[in-house]
Amino acid sequence: MRHTAIHNLASRLRKGDRSALSKAITLVESEHDDHQDKSETLFRHLAATGLRHSVRIGITGATGVGKSTFINTLGTILIGHGHRVAVLAVDPTSTLAGGSILGDKTRMSELTRHEACYIRPSPSGRNTDGVGDRTGEAALLCEQACYDFVIIETTGTGQTNVLVSEIADIFLLLVAPHGGDELQGIKRGVMELADFVLVTKNDGEHAATAGRTCAEYASALRLLRHRRGDPDQVPNAMTVSSLCADTVMSCWQSVEELIAWRRDHGTLLERRQRNSAKRLESEIRLQILNRIRNDAALATRLEDLAHEVARSGTSPMAAAREILDALSSCRDIQP
Q: What pTM value is reported for the model?
């Protein structure tokens, strides 16, 4: 793909061409050096014409809590209001292996029928934090392809998937109704980062339990330190039934109010800029690891050091310094 081809790809992407978006995301997710060079050229083309900013919604929660069903209803509502919606569903395996994405698409059956919706599996790669190595870049490409909202669904382990909060503008934690003890297992970190805790399955025989669970979370959230740059009612807990569009719409109205508040107070842009700086640090770490793994001698030495750290008590700090010194000096490593 020559420079002209990249320019054409950027032009088609900016016009909302779905196939161009898919091709661009595939290019960005590739680990081939040539593809990464082309990705950098693509982003330079996009930046030169002025970057667009959509609203990014990060959604996490344990497997079975109903993330995909909630996204299906929310996305349908947004499209009904004239918006274009992109969904990045992070696959815990890969785009080729299928993983959870088949189930996601089945549960998003109504959403997939809309031309204004784009659903893309985003492989997690080596990342264990619920999002993929290139989910941030994929979200940026969706923004440039004229999608008003980019919804990022994590792999499913809702208590540890907090990295999505560094990509998203709004962070939703979905939890299931419970009998009273499960709240103790929720990690403080994800609670502090979530803008809203949504208790799902607020219908039928689960309605009463959902109400009690929501009250417990609301009480717990009030004990957390108030976050600078947020209104008094955030974070908050609400009940929702993904099978009832009215309850999803009610939750979304609260989200819209938070988006408007952050825009008016300048914290939406400030949050995006702060998170971009964090993502830069993450990218540096990722590229350093990739360079080590792509060098046969360094990769072998890294594996040997990992065994030494695990078995003989070698200091991880000293082992890391050896690898980084070798990387910076480019000296030969004898396996």
A: 0.82
Tokens of 70: 């909630």
For CA atoms 231, 233, 202, 62, give the dihedral sign: positive
DSSP state of 49: T
Across the chain, which has 335 residues, the per-10-residue mean pLDDT values are 81 93 91 83 87 89 87 94 92 50 61 90 55 80 94 68 79 82 59 88 86 89 76 89 92 94 88 81 81 86 87 82 82 51
Which stretches of the chain are assigned E, i.e. beta strand? 55-61, 85-91, 117-123, 149-153, 170-175, 196-199, 236-239
Can you tell me the distance from the alpha carbon of 329 to that of 173, in angstroms, rounded to the nearest whole number?
45
Task: Indicate the residue type of 2.
Answer: R
Instruction: Report residue 263 as tokens.
Output: 């825009």
Q: How far apart are the first and last CA of the chain?
A: 37
Tokens read off for 210: 């959902």
Q: Which residue has the tokens 């002025």?
A: 50
**Whole-number Cα distances in Å, 261 to 127, 238, 239, 258:** 33, 19, 22, 5
